[in-house]
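2024-03-11 09:14:02 DEBUG pipeline.ingest accepted 1 chain
2024-03-11 09:14:02 DEBUG pipeline.ingest length=371
2024-03-11 09:14:03 DEBUG pipeline.predict start
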Amino acid sequence: MAKKKSVGLKIFVTVMKSFCVVILMMLVGIASYKFTMKYYEVYADEEKGSDIIDIVSDITADEVSRNIIYSVNAETKKVEAIVIEVLNTLTGNLDYITIPDNFQMEINTDIYQRLYAAGVDVPQVLRISQINKYFNDDTAYEYGIILIENSLGIDIGYYTTMPSDTFHSVFAMDSSTGCYKLTDTVIAEAASVPDVSAMEKFIKDKCEGYTTNIKVKSKIKYAECYKNVNPELIYYHVVPGQEADGAFTVDSKETKTMYSQVLGDSKHEVAQTQVKNISSKDKKIKVLNGSGGDGIAAKVKGILEKDGYKVSKIADNPELIDNTVIRVSEDGMGKDIKTYFENASIEVAELEDGVDIIVIVGKADAQISAE
C-alpha cells in the first residue's frame, strides 16, 4: 500500500513539475514579446487602431518649419508629387525641395524589422508613391515621414496632404529644373494679404482643405514670417540622385549636404539665379586647428577626404577661436564644407598660393564627428 502511494506521489510531482515548466515557458514568452515591442519602440495608437513608430503626435511650431507636402490622387490614393517646405523664422528664408514622384527606396533592416514587429506587410524596396497601398490611410503619411527621413538622412517636422487638383493650383512643375514652384496665382494671393492678422486667417482657411498633423494654432505662429517672405527670394531645389529603369534613387550623402545648406543658409539677399554655389571637391583645402584639441586638424582632414574633398595641408592655427571660420578665394565656395560644422562662417579673402580654401576649426567643433 505504501508503495502504491509512493508511485502516485511521484506521478503527481512529475505532473506538477511539467505544469510549472509550461507556465514558466509562457511567462518567458510573454516577457520576450514585451521586450521585443519595447526594443522596436512600437506603440499602439488606440484612436487610430494602428501601430505608429516613433511619431510625435503633438507637433509644435519650431524655429524652422519642415513640412512635407504630399499631392494625393483622391480616387487612387496614389502620391503623385512630394515637396518639402522649409520656412526659417530666424532668417525669413522660404525654400521648397522637390522629391521626384518615382522616388524608390530600400528600407534599411532596422526600420524593416520595426515595421514587421508592427504587423506591416511591406516590401523592402518601395516607391513612396505607393505608401497608401501598404499602410492605413490614417497613418500612411506619418510612416512616409519615417521612411523618407531614413532614406534621405534628413529630419522632417510634420506633413500636409493636398488633393492633386489643389496641389497643382499651388505648385507648377518647372521642366528646366525639375522643381515644383509656387504658381503666380498663389503668390499673388498671398501677397494681397494686408497684415499678419489676415495672414493668420489665410492660413486657417487653407488648413481646412488639407490633412495635416500640426494643429492650426501651431501653424499660425508662422503667420508673420509667411507675411514677410519676398516671393523673389524664394529658393527651389530638387534632391540629388540618379534615374534608371523608370525609378529615381536618391544620393543620400549629397541630399544631406544640400538639406544642411538649406537649413543653415544665411538670409536670402539675392534671387536664387544670382547665387553662386561652387563645389569644393576639386579645390585645394588647408585645415588649421584653432580649437586647442589634440589631432583635430588630422581628424577633419580624414572626414573631408572620406567624402571626396582634397586636403593638401594641415597645421595648428596661431590662435584659438570659438567658431569655425572657412576662408575662400572666391565667393560661392565653401558652402558644402560649412555643413560639417556648428555655426561656421565663410569669409572671402586672399589666400596663399596653391590653396583655394582654408578651414580654421574652432572650439565649438573640437568634438566633430564623421556622423
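2024-03-11 09:14:41 DEBUG pipeline.report The first strand starts at residue 42 and ends at 45.
2024-03-11 09:14:41 DEBUG pipeline.predict end
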